Amino acid sequence: MNVLYQNPHEAQLLFGRGFRAGMDRREQKKLAAKNEKDMRDEFRKKEGVDEKPEEVAAQKLKEEAADLYDTFDMRVDRHWSEKKLEEMTERDWRIFREDYNISYKGSKIPRPMRSWEESKLTSELLKSVERAGYKKPSPIQMAAIPLGLQQRDVIGIAETGSGKTCAFVLPMLTYISRLPPMSEENEAEGPYAVVMAPTRELAQQIEDETVKFAHYLGIKVVSIVGGQSIEEQGFRIRQGCEVVIATPGRLIDCLERRYAVLNQCNYVVLDEADRMIDMGFEPQVMGVLDAMPSSNLKPENEDEELDEKKIYRTTYMFSATMPPAVERLARKYLRNPVVVTIGTAGKATDLITQHVIMMKESEKSYRLNRLLEEAGDKTAIVFVNTKKNADMVAKNLDKLGFRVTTLHGGKSQEQREISLEGFRTKRYNVLVATDVAGRGIDIPDVAHVINYDMPGNIEMYTHRIGRTGRAGKTGVATTFLTHGDSDVFYDLKQMLIQNNSPVPPELAKHEASKFKPGGIPDRPPRRNDTVFAH
Ligand code: ADP
Ligand code: MG
């Protein structure tokens, strides 16, 4: 009855830019376009001007756009996994990246590959992937392989166990298979690709993974690591091989003594770059990189077009973290790199349950026995800080009847390989190790990591506990903490809080856990710190 309601007013939401919830957006958009036209018509009538042709055209465009606008509809749109590659929208790709926790930094980034079939790998390589039993690419492989195939420089940040090796091996083999085969003419010029890794064990593993795929292509792989005859290694390189996998110290030795040259090497991988820097290999790594032809470096100016026919040096760098020294290396040797980050860099995986137990040094031995007894047949790595401790702990466990072996820097290469092999094949189920085994070494199915000694810094802690909870499995990490470890109390407490793990009351209450050592709680960011946007 009220006149107010006889002529209800439809509010125009910001001239068509806003929407009402719960109504068809297309209808709303059409209505907005119509209202705008009505308004203009009315204005023209009043002013007595004619409609201009461009206005008519613009109006038409708008109406068409309204029809197309936001054709996405929650109710009818399918998940990206049900779509063909051509059907993928920008939004689907965003969800895809979120689903796999992939983030990028850089320009002109190619799409990740959703599956092996959609990759641009040759059918030969795809067959070898199938033979390896890799049903689906891992996230770092999805992101990094398309980049590598375009010869882009890549910085990959991903946890250990995420399949980084295969992510650089496949593009590397693709690159090599396009080059003329090694023959008497060119084998004296050295390998086509070099992979550097911090430790012998790691180099060994990379070799195994590379051979898996290279074998079928007839590509030869030689590893150049300490502890074996350098003359023989030099001989094997000169016999002709496409790929060299090396520790930086031994490789620079080989180069300086003229056992090897890198005159035609244009594909370089630095695996676990942060670890190589930690171990003091920066000068050797730079020495090796400087021994390669620099004429093939990509232009410094990133806008410059690359010549498709030319061969450029491609550099891949993997690292769990990006300390300033690694940044420095990247700035000097990588050109317009794409930074690929999987998950949160440096974060211990959520699949690991972390326990920290406060105790006295004298209680450790007894507590370890108890833990291992409870673990039964499961595999465990016990980390200690010194070789002496490793031998002592192993001896005690051996006396108690555990199947135990050791891995530390004091053992010969051969002994280390025997230990590792015995542990992999489960002849031993307990491995007592120093940090030689802390990084990169792939030992499947470790159910339990025990820090008999807490390491001196939180990064090493992260890497050690990363030996468990790999490839989607869950794991347990137990750490024996004493008051002597107070330098890391602060970081450890933060770590446990972040992972929703219980903080033992003695640690929570301890003065040293309340402030960062050095007395400055939470220092402000410095220029050289790298912060990755996700
Ligand atoms: P990272 O270098 O990231 O620590 P690795 O390259 O050593 O990881 O790979 C860890 C393990 O996962 C290896 O045993 C490897 O054979 C396996 N792996 C790698 N990629 C795949 C895949 N796509 N599917 C199944 N297993 C894989
Ligand atoms: Mg690795």
UniProtKB/TrEMBL annotation:
Q: Name the Gene Ontology molecular function terms of this record.
A: ATP binding; hydrolase activity; RNA binding; RNA helicase activity
- The organism's place on the tree of life at top rank: Eukaryota
GO BP of this protein: mRNA splicing, via spliceosome
Entry-linked SMART domains: DEXDc (SM00487), HELICc (SM00490)
Q: What is its EC number?
A: 3.6.4.13
| Keywords (A to Z) from UniProt | ATP-binding, Helicase, Hydrolase, mRNA processing, mRNA splicing, Nucleotide-binding, Nucleus, RNA-binding
- Top EC class per UniProt? hydrolase
SUPFAM superfamilies in UniProt: P-loop containing nucleoside triphosphate hydrolases
Domain Helicase C-terminal span(s) in chain numbering: 367-511
Motif Q motif is found at 114-142
A GO CC annotation given for this chain: nucleus
| Record-given protein name | DEAD-box ATP-dependent RNA helicase 21
What species is given as this protein's source? Salix brachista
